[in-house]
Amino acid sequence: MQSKICGISDAKTLSFLTNHSSSPDFIGFIVNYVKSKRYVNFAKLKKLLKIDKKNSYYVAVLVKPKNKILEKIKDLPFDYYQIYDCKPKEIKSIKAKYQKKIITAFSIENKNDVKKCKNYQDITDIYLFDGKGYEKSISFDHSIIKNINLKKPIMIAGNIKLDDNFENYKKIADIIDISGALETSGLKDISKIKIFLKKIKELNYET
């Protein structure tokens, strides 16, 4: 089971993550969704990403991105673009032009939403199944993706809590994506991050 911690917006937290002995596989930054309290403007983002990613992948979280923002961030050290609300041909064009790996994000409410992923199989590197609501992190019934047959890794998000049984997620996904559960009063909480990374490590090393 791999991990992704999303919504990083300060250097202290990012340095802690990249230097951790069990650093997350993916670290996400909210690049263009200004409604999110975790949004990072370009000037701050540019400075933040000077921190060496070491063993993690940096992920740009993009909601229906326009050419302007894509051009602004093209030289930043992102490994993946996590894209919401774009049609297959739009993502295909972005992938070809900017040579980034793609996490296609699907906001899930019912089985019909899950079926849409089939249209992205040729361009997606990782499928992300998230709840509706973007930064509000609304949960969805994870069982509806349980038997989905995809040939790419599956990432799962949507109101995941620290005290959830992560064994259940391991049965249906390859990567856990978490954000709000690692915060106190809207800010990333190092003590909660430590608990999460420890749980992932234990999940992977249990016999």
Q: Measured on Cα atoms, how large is the radius of gyration?
A: 16 Å
Number of strands: 10
- Residues in helix, %: 25-40%
Which descriptor suits the 3D outline?
Answer: globular
CATH topology: the name is TIM Barrel
Strand order of the largest sheet: 1-2-3-4-5-6-7-8
Work out the helix count. 7
Structurally, the number of domains stands at 1
Spans of at least 5 consecutive residues with low confidence? none
String of helices and strands = EHEHEHEHEHEEHEEEH
N- to C-terminal distance: 14 Å
Secondary-structure content class: alpha/beta
In the CATH hierarchy, what is the superfamily?
Answer: Aldolase class I
Strand content: 15-25%
CATH architecture tag:
Alpha-Beta Barrel
Q: Averaging pLDDT over every residue, what do you get?
A: 92
SSE topology:
Blueprint: E1 2-5, H1 11-19, E2 26-30, H2 42-48, E3 57-63, H3 67-73, E4 80-84, H4 88-98, E5 101-108, H5 111-115, E6 126-131, E7 154-156, H6 166-170, E8 175-178, E9 183-184, E10 187-188, H7 190-205
Parallel strand pairs: 1-2, 1-8, 2-3, 3-4, 4-5, 5-6, 6-7, 7-8
Antiparallel strand pairs: 9-10
Protein architecture, described:
The chain is an alpha/beta fold and about 210 residues long. The chain has one domain: TIM Barrel (Alpha-Beta Barrel), CATH 3.20.20. Helices cover about 30% and strands about 20% of the residues. It has 7 helices and 10 strands. The strands form 2 sheets. It has an 8-stranded parallel beta barrel with strand order 1-2-3-4-5-6-7-8. Strands 9-10 form a two-stranded antiparallel ribbon. α3 links the parallel β3 and β4.
